[in-house]
Amino acid sequence: MGHIQDRWYRPKKDPETGEIALNARGKPVLEKTQLYGVGMRYRVRYLDPDGREKARSFPDKQKKRAEDFLIEVESDKREGKYVDPRAGQVTFE
């Protein structure tokens, strides 16, 4: 199963305990990463049917598109319709 990584924010850790800090509602407190505002924000990471890790990035405000891509990839893998995105880049002579 794949996941979506937010490259601009990460859960803040308590410096004393090393545990993830939670707000009053019990949700993780987020802090900006060094990549904040630079490049693509969301990275979809998944394993292809051969077990190799693949990734595709999406810009800010496109999390829904990233989620849809992940759902499509996982569905194609289950149905046996997965095609490696780089397969079309092979040169034939």
Describe the structure.
Helix content is 18%, strand content 24%. With 93 residues, the protein is an alpha+beta fold. It has one domain (3-81). The strands form two sheets. The protein has a three-stranded antiparallel beta sheet, covered by helices on one side. Strands 2-3 form a two-stranded antiparallel ribbon. The longest helix has 17 residues, at 63-79.
What is this structure's SSE topology?
Layout: E1 3-6, E2 9-11, E3 30-32, E4 42-47, E5 53-58, H1 63-79
Antiparallel strand pairs: 1-4, 2-3, 4-5
How many strands, which pairing sense, and closed or not: the largest β-sheet? 3 strands, antiparallel
Secondary-structure element string: EEEEEH
Beta content comes to: 15-25%
Total domain modules:
1
Q: Strands of the largest sheet, in order across it?
A: 1-4-5
Provide the residue-averaged pLDDT. Answer: 92
Specify the helix fraction band.
10-25%
Radius of gyration: 17 Å
Low-confidence stretches: none
Count of DSSP-assigned helices: 1
